[in-house]
Amino acid sequence: MRLDFTLTALLAAGLSQAQYLISELSFGHAGRISPAESRGQIPNFVLQGAPQMPEVLSNRIILTPLAPGNQRGAVWSQQSLQRSQWIADVDFRVNGPDRGGGNLNIWLARNGPGAVGSSSVYTVGKFDGLALVLDKTGSSGGMIRGYLNDGTTDFGSKQRVEELAFGHCSYSYRNLGRPSQIKMRQSSTTFRVEIDGQLCFETNKFSLPSGYQFGVTAATPDTPDSFEVFKLVVMSDNSDTGTDNTNKQQTPNKNPPSNNNNDNSNSNNNNNNNAKKDTYDGGELADENPDIFQTSKTQFMDLHNRLQSTNHQLSSLHRVASRHQQQDEKRHEEIMQIMSQLRTGLAKVDEINELQGRITDLDKEIQGLRRELTRKFQANERSVKAVLNDHHSSLSEALIDSTPGHRFLIFVFFGTQGLVITAYLVYKRRRNSMPKKYL
């Protein structure tokens, strides 16, 4: 149900701004990369590699294998891009051992097969165009960097090529188990790079001219990664005015030719049909006067071209719907993860509430224990005071009983005084009774 709704919305939006496949610059969009009769060759593309050529399977190109290392592989379009506004999607996958390495380069360069070949941005030398590089240089997880060159800078002689990048973002691309998608989009005002539907970087500082060729290259060290490319799809909208759309500006003869000029009529029909062949891949077919189709062959060719154009548009809408569905599923998974985290947070809140209840109960118990201890201390204090009072009273009574009376003290005092006086008187008497001695 959701896919049907998305398709309906996209069909409605496609009426105002449709994207048209440029088939001579694309592969992998129709299910098979290489037809069975081509024997490993890709129509409109050329393969390069050293020391061995890339392996072409039914649904992907293996630019570099897992073994051996030190491999280089490339796939280049034979025709150049004749659009100033375009979208290019590259689906790729990278697998390898824990310490595997290598780089994937997406090019839009002038004379790409000859000037670039199977080189990477680190060994290419001078080139004219754009290079988008995916590797682990300067990052443990992986980085996507964009480079521009007008043919004057020798990249192969630079010690730190990554410092020449005009834009970059982090992306862990290795051993994901699924294809990743890089989307490059050039509009009339900006150049934009997205990875898996998320913005990587965007700039309005330049606009690439037409006449460049698309290519994908990969290079590996001794311990290699396997770089696989599933598709390269290039599209343009009907508002674009490239050099190959000049035939669209021709208007057919609205007055039907006379019977005496059948040869001229057939030649005009053939020219119109040739114009349609040149334009149905890149834009919308112009409306034709039905009077110009005099033979069943021209009618069939016009119908064939229009059906093929409709098929391309529907295929493009289906791809867009599929991407939106994948994004919706990814967002659904993210929402479910957020809900799970929210439930975990709510469970923690419940635990906090329970802990607060326990703290409240503990506070009540502590207050009760405090009151009980206060009562115990007061009771002990009263009992100690009573015991001390009793002990003090009994001690006072004992001291009173053991202390002599006043009479005894007076008797002792006066008796002592009397004894002293008596002793003094006896002494004086004896002294007086002693004989006197004269000298």
TrEMBL record:
Q: Where is the signal peptide?
A: 1-18
**GO MF:** D-mannose binding
Pfam families linked: Lectin_leg-like
Q: Enumerate the residue ranges of region (Disordered).
A: 238-289
Membrane topology summary: Single-pass type I membrane protein
Q: Which domain of life is it from?
A: Eukaryota
Regions crossing the membrane: 408-427
Q: Which UniProt keywords apply?
A: Membrane, Signal, Transmembrane, Transmembrane helix
Keyword DNA damage assigned to the entry: answer is no
Residue ranges, compositional bias (Low complexity): 243-274
Q: What is this protein called?
A: L-type lectin-like domain-containing protein
Which organism is this protein's natural source? Cylindrodendrum hubeiense
Native organism taxonomy = Eukaryota, Fungi, Dikarya, Ascomycota, Pezizomycotina
